[in-house]
Each structure stands twice: as C-alpha cells, then as structure tokens.
Amino acid sequence: MPARLTPRQRAYVRKRTNVPDPDPSELSDELNIVPFLDIVVNIIMFLLMTLTTVAFFSQVEAALPEYRKGGIGKRAAETEALNLNVTVTRAGVIVSGSGGKLARGCTTTAPGKVITVPAGMNGEHDWVGVTNCVRRVKEQFEDETRVTLSADPEVPYEHLIAAMDAVRGEDDELFPDVLLSAGIR
Fold it and tell me: Tens of pLDDT along 14-72?
C-alpha cells in the first residue's frame, strides 16, 4: 500500500508542480525574429558609418590618362600626342612614341627590334646617351611632359631608377612626369 503524504508534503508538491499559464506569444509555433532584426539593422548602420569614414581617409591619388584624339571640327586634335615610352632591357634602352621606335642616333624611326641606346659590353647602360636622345625628342615636342617608363623583369631596380633620372634630365626638366608601366616579356 502506498504511503500517505502529510499535508505539509502535499503543499510542497503542489507548489513545485504548479505550471504557469504561458504567454500568448509563446503559444504560437513561429520564431520571433524581431530582436534578431534589431541587431542586424544596428550592425548595418554601424558598418555604413565606418565605411564612409574609412573611405574618406584612405583615398589614393591617381592620375588617369587623357584621351586626346578624335572629335569632329573644333574638337579634333590639332597635334598628335607623343606618348613617349622608354623601355629598359638588358640589351639597352628602347625609346618609342606614337610615330614608332627611334633608331640609333635618335634621329629617325625604324621598324622591328630596335635598340635605341645599346648597352655596353659589360652590360652597363649609357644613361648620358639616353638623356641626349630624350633631349632631341623634347626639342620637337616642347609642351610634352609625360613619359611612360617600363623595364624587363631581369633588369635591376637601380637601372630603372637611373632611367628615371635620365628621362627627367639633370639641369633642365625634360620629362618630369614619369609613369611606371608593367614590365615586358
């Protein structure tokens, strides 16, 4: 026969087994996503605010190339742009422009593989010769200030810096706006 509970034990059991009535929001089987959406909206607002701040302080200065050709009538280009390119290779320096590659002596253009200022027997480049060649080009295009400099990946970094100095000129500014281009292969 089961043991009888005392009134004190019955009150304790009744108190502990009392099931509270659930809240009406707890009765539905759907998930309440309102708190989750509040957090997501706050995170999005925070990210947008930090993005504008970071973008403001991390701007990169870049000069885009100018488009000079084309147009009809008054918009047409009166003079063709030089587009001077100086390429440093192990064999020497190639100077080219819109009209083609300059031949040795920097007076005429030549087709094919042309080394404008060849390197010496020991691999040393003639930077004075490059400066003289660029000076001849500057005499014909006095308003031009931009030159694009590229180098073969096998060329040492010091040669690239020396080429930059050579195209800028020593006493007079020849082409002060030097743009670097990817190496050739």
Answer: 888 877 787 777 777 778 889 999 999 999 999 988 887 776 666 656 666 665 555 55
Q: Are 64 and 75 in contact (CB under 8 A)?
A: no
Dihedrals phi, psi of 53, to nearest 5 degrees: -70, -45
Classified as helix, coil or strand, 150 is strand
Give every CB contact of residue 68 below 8 A, 6+ residues apart in sequence: 77, 81
Render pLDDT for 93-135 as a digit per residue (tens, 0 to 9). 888 888 788 888 888 888 888 888 888 888 888 888 888 888 8
* pTM summary value: 0.56
Question: Is pLDDT larger for residue 157 or for residue 185?
Answer: 157
Q: Residue 34 belongs to what domain range? A: 8-57
Q: How far apart are CA 100 and CA 69, in angstroms?
A: 17
According to DSSP, the residues that pair with 86 across neighbouring strands are 95, 149
Counting the structural domains of the chain, the total is 2
What type of residue is 112?
G
Task: Specify which residues 118 forms β-bridges with.
Answer: 92
CA 147 to chain centre: 19
Task: Say yes or no: 94 and 166 in one domain.
Answer: yes
Residues 6 or more apart from 80 whose CB is under 8 A from it? 69, 98
Any idea what the CATH number is for the domain that residue 139 is in? 3.30.420.270
